[in-house]
Amino acid sequence: MAIQRTLSIIKPDAVEKNKAGAILARFQEEGFVVRAMKPIHLTLKQAEGFYAEHRERGFFGELTTFMSRGPVLVLALEREDAIAKYRDVIGATDPKKAADNTIRKLYGDNVGENAVHGSDSEASAARELGYFFSGYELL
User: Is residue 139 very low, low, confident or very high in pLDDT (cuts 50, 70, 90)?
Assistant: First the structure.
């Protein structure tokens, strides 16, 4: 298996509940190395740009409003098989359906406010990392 990078966003709901530190610690316990990290407060326009592929879906407005309501923590994480491992650690999109001890089960409230975002493929990881980090920002 190859070393990969993936994007993680600790979403506004988790930041508001002061769970960003616990979530970050869990990622590190799972063997992820932080290659870049920054707190930001997305504007609505930035959130719409990031989630542009979902523009035609019914949840787009709710999602982008939520993602721009407060600060988030954006992370570039690295490890062997990072994308698949990250998806295992965060759990299903719906916290009610997520496996026990996953990030979303522990810290998510519902499908919309589920604590974290993560890349779902190498192509999306490359696009998403590039959205938030310039090349020189990634160690």
Answer: confident
Number of folded domains that form the chain: 1
Give CA–CA dist 50/52, Å, rounded.
Answer: 6
Distance (Å, whole) CA 126 – CA 10 = 18
**At a CB cut-off of 8 Å and minimum separation 6, what does 66 contact?**
11, 12, 13, 112, 113
Identify whether the C-beta of residue 130 lies closer than 8 Å to the C-beta of residue 29.
Answer: no
* CB-CB contact of 12 with 47 (8 Å): no
Residue 105 located in a structural domain:
yes
Annotated active-site positions, please?
Answer: 117
Q: Does the residue 138 lie in any domain?
A: no
DSSP-assigned states of every residue in 30-49: TT-EEEEEEEE---HHHHHH
Q: State the pTM of this model.
A: 0.96
Rounded distance between C-alpha atoms, residue 11 and residue 114, angstroms: 8
The CATH number covering residue 92 comes to 3.30.70.141
User: Residue 113 in contact with residue 13, Cβ under 8 Å?
Assistant: yes
Average pLDDT over residues 90-109: 98
